[in-house]
Amino acid sequence: MRILVAVKRVVDYAVKVRVRADKAAVELKNTKMSMNPFCEIALEEAVRLKEKKIASEVVAVSIGPKEAQETLRTALAIGADKAIHVTTTLRPDQELQPLATAKVLGKVVDQVDPSLVLMGKQSIDSDASQTGQMLAGLLGWPQATFASEIEIQDGAMSVTREVDSGLSTIKLSTPAVVTCDLRLNEPRYATLPNIMKARKKPMDTIKIEDTGVDVTPRLKVLSVEEPAQRQAGEKVGSVEELVEKLKAKKLV
């Protein structure tokens, strides 16, 4: 079984996001970037399946500027066997939108011919949570989203999903698309020897124009604003005073 894992380069989750002076986008210059946390979980699951001898090869793919190669090298250091970089000058957080991303990944699927595509359930920059579902729809493959547990035995796949009412377990055949949730696993850190080995692993480069996909943005971001500063609270001495203050603010 060959597994394709989509990984995305995003602003590091621990960084305080800054808005550009023109309020057109989030500031990316001089900002620490890293692999999307949900993509790390998907990659970790793929590597674990390989360690269990269920998967024979793990291929990582990323769509983005040349700096995305750093993210792919991290994926190779964690355990991916090879990488594919689809180059583009579009901003992955705003201009490269879910439908275009899904179509480009579909072209990569045609090239790699995987039995399973693993992805994060969403990226922490756009929070769209749409690409995996769109990719499955375009391919006509079964899909399981928000996976918290994946079991593969004798070619059959069982996926436990996190839903509003609790957990839902479904069975599906391969090839399939699975998006991974937070509690699926805890990703490992890349060790120094593996970081050194990753430099020798193959990485193919594809220009996004060569995929033949129209990646023109369908949506336009008009303005990006920082959240309003939270106002200080007030202490009240009694329930009656609380009710009066709520009435004064026309909240009750």
Q: What are the SSEs and their pairings?
A:
Elements: E1 2-6, E2 9-11, E3 33-35, H1 37-51, E4 57-64, H2 68-78, E5 82-87, H3 98-112, E6 116-120, H4 131-139, E7 143-153, E8 156-163, E9 166-172, E10 176-180, H5 192-198, E11 203-207, H6 239-248
Parallel strand pairs: 1-4, 1-6, 4-5, 5-11, 6-10, 7-10
Antiparallel strand pairs: 2-3, 7-8, 8-9
Helix pairs in contact: 2-5, 3-4
Can you summarize this structure?
This protein has 252 residues and is α/β, with parallel strands linked by helices. Helix content is 27%, strand content 26%.
In terms of DSSP E residues, the strand content is 25-35%
Task: Using the CA coordinates, give the radius of gyration.
Answer: 21 Å
Category from helices, strands and their pairing: alpha/beta
Shape: globular
Q: Helical residue percent? A: 25-40%
Q: Terminal Cα separation, in Å?
A: 60 Å
Number of DSSP strand runs: 11
Strand order across the largest sheet: 9-8-7-10-6-1-4-5-11
Low-confidence stretches: none
Written overview of the protein:
The structure is a single chain. It is built from 6 helices and 11 strands. The chain has helices spanning 37-51, 68-78, 98-112, 131-139, 192-198, 239-248, and strands at residues 2-6, 9-11, 33-35, 57-64, 82-87, 116-120, 143-153, 156-163, 166-172, 176-180, 203-207. Helix 2 (68-78) links the parallel strand 4 (57-64) and strand 5. The model has no long low-confidence stretch (mean pLDDT 93).
